Inverse folding.
């Protein structure tokens, strides 16, 4: 009888220890990986968006990219590694969507966010946003508001962020183009020259 009680007690302790270790492993894996490139990944943990990587000591390290509202998440994340001025950098790109709806107007905005990071120094060296908004608006053609027409238009704000073959950043929109060159000593991108208007 004593042996049976001892066996039951041991099995109870084993079950308790196993379930606790199971819970702790679930807690540690609460990050959601949205993009991955070699040892670098973009991860969402609760409402914080991180760039996660392995440092020189083979330990996991992070750079906070952005804190989101509880109901928002980054979409279509991409990681692009490139070399500029002998330094390896990572460009992380994602989309953010937002809608505003009223009785007479609907606006659907898509923002492309680009963040360039230097994981060796754990710094963000450049952040850029470009937003395209599709607008649908009802215009009344008479005072009594009995006749109307729907007008569709697109509004663009900001610059598209492109990394060229030399590792320089080109920021461009419909009428302007700016080139930025990486400065390794300051760990940031600086404008190569004043913005130039595109030739028509």
């Amino acid at each position: 009888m004593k042996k049976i009680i001892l066996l039951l007690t041991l099995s109870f302790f084993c079950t308790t220890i196993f379930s606790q270790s199971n819970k702790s492993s679930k807690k540690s894996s609460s990050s959601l990986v949205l993009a991955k490139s070699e040892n670098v990944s973009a991860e969402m943990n609760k409402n914080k968006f991180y760039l996660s990587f392995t440092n020189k000591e083979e330990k996991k390290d992070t750079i906070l990219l952005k804190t989101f509202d509880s109901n928002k998440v980054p979409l279509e994340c991409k990681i692009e590694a490139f070399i500029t001025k002998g330094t390896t950098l990572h460009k992380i790109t994602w989309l953010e969507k937002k809608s505003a709806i009223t009785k007479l107007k609907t606006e659907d905005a898509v923002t492309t966010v680009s963040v360039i990071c230097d994981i060796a120094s754990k710094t963000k060296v450049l952040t850029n946003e470009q937003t395209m908004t599709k607008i649908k608006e009802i215009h009344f053609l008479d005072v009594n508001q009995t006749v109307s027409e729907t007008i569709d238009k697109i509004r663009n704000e900001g610059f598209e962020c492109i990394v060229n073959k030399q590792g320089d950043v080109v920021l461009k929109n419909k009428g302007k183009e700016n080139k930025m060159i990486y400065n390794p000593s300051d760990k940031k991108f600086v404008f190569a020259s004043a913005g130039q208007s595109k030739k028509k």
The first strand starts at residue 32 and ends at 37. Helices lie at 2-28. The mean pLDDT is 84. DSSP finds one helix and 14 strands in the chain.
